[in-house]
Amino acid sequence: MTTVGASTSDSRYTTFVVRLLRDEAGEESAIVELVRTGEKQRVYGLAAIGDAIADLARRDRDND
Predict the structure, then answer these.
(1) Per-residue b/e over 4-36, b at no fewer than 16 CB within 10 Å?
(2) What's the 3-state SS for the chain?
(3) pTM of the model
(4) Which residues pair with 21 in a beta bridge?
(5) What is the per-residue pLDDT across 21-51, written as a single tens digit (0 to 9) for each?
(6) Where in the sequence is the domain holding 46, given as residue range(s)?
(7) CA–CA–CA angle 8, 13, 14 (5° rounding)
(8) Does residue 49 sit within a domain?
(9) Residue 10 lies in a domain
(10) Confidence of residue 1 (pLDDT cuts 50, 70, 90)
(11) 34 domain residue, yes or no
């Protein structure tokens, strides 16, 4: 097994589900879900997906 980076007992992976939709006009929207809590954010445009992931990860970290 290969280990990358430092790991502590407090480390854990955070899992997200991204559901992407392209409408008839070609516009993309997505629902980004933080799996552990079930919290979801709807975003419009592909560029907004990363911001939603960062926001949900920050909230998850702050709630620990």
Answers:
(1) eeeeeeeeeeeeeeeeeeeeeeeeebbebbbee
(2) CCCCCCCCCCCCCCCEEEEEEECCCCCEEEEEEECCCCCEEEEECCHHHHHHHHHHHHHHHHCC
(3) 0.79
(4) 29
(5) 999 999 999 999 999 999 999 999 999 999 9
(6) 16-62
(7) 135
(8) yes
(9) no
(10) low
(11) yes
Tokens 């919290």 — which residue? 39
Q: First and final CA of the chain: distance in angstroms? A: 29
Number of domains in the chain: 1
Domain annotation covers residue 5: no
8 Å CB contact between 32 and 40:
yes
| 31 token code pair | 């629902």
